[in-house]
Specification:
Length: 262
């Protein structure tokens, strides 16, 4: 609220306080008479008991005073002392400590939700935590880990003394089960649109082009070509070579016989 609004509000509150006070005094003393407008407001056609009017005006005064107090009252910020500071006095707000502790504790696996409240004492702070955890978590182990992390953040990182750390488990939440899928089934939603389009095109091409069967004429041509190559390997050239080899063997035998006779 800016300065102008504050001034207007204060003037209005003071006006109602003064008018109410004068009305209370006039009810019993009768020092002056109200004008027609004031008479219609405070004393309409029906006669009202002065005690009822007094109580109503007192209520107005109390409300105005409370509004004045709330206007000038400033809520005191909760702070804690930071130790191990070389010179001067260092303070940190309780909200900052709670935010740092909450961020560190929420990193622990198995925690579903965390509520934290820190109160200030003369010797330090008291950390109170309400935690919802998973049913599969090891409760004693996780509780020890959470308390250790909360104290470590306050003591070592922020240098704020911790009087006590209190942890309460409010609920154990079951883990959500993922929908079962057949082994090796691909998730089409996770695939890239480009890859999915290419795979669809391949499927369409495979369906449009059936597997080609070997043509019977081609098989006949291949068989004839195989027979010709086999015949060429056993042609007249091979027979002449065989005859020459036999003639050479006969000549060698005759030379051996002549040598033996002599």
């Amino acid at each position: 609220m800016n300065v102008f609004n504050k001034i207007i509000l204060i003037i209005l509150l003071l006006f109602f306080i003064i008018i109410s006070s004068l009305s209370i005094v006039n009810e019993f003393a009768g020092f002056f008479k109200w004008s027609d407008i004031a008479h219609k407001i405070f004393n309409p056609g029906i006669n009202i008991s002065p005690y009822i009017s007094t109580l109503a005006l007192l209520f107005v005064i109390v409300v105005c005073i409370l509004l004045l107090l709330l206007e000038f009252y400033r809520r005191k910020t909760r702070i804690a002392k930071v130790y191990n500071v070389e010179s001067g006095t260092a303070m940190i707000t309780i909200d900052t400590i709670a935010h740092q502790v909450k961020d560190a504790v929420l990193k622990v696996e198995g925690i579903k939700s965390l509520g934290i409240d820190i109160s200030q004492k003369s010797g330090g702070i008291i950390i109170e935590m309400n935690v919802e955890m998973s049913q599969k978590a090891n409760i004693p182990e996780k509780m020890t880990e959470i308390i250790k992390i909360a104290r470590d953040v306050s003591l070592n990182r922020l240098n704020v003394k911790v009087v006590d750390t209190r942890l309460t488990i409010t609920n154990l939440v079951p883990d959500e089960k993922a929908p079962s899928r057949p082994f090796g089934a691909a998730d089409k939603s996770a695939a890239s649109p480009v890859i999915q389009y290419v795979e669809d095109q391949k499927v369409l091409q495979d369906r449009a082009q059936p597997a080609q069967q070997p043509h019977p004429e081609n098989t006949k041509v291949q068989e004839q070509y195989g027979e010709k190559t086999a015949a060429s390997n056993t042609g007249p050239g091979t027979e002449s070579n065989a005859i020459n080899i036999e003639d050479n063997d006969d000549e060698i035998n005759e030379s051996d016989d002549s040598g033996n006779i002599s």
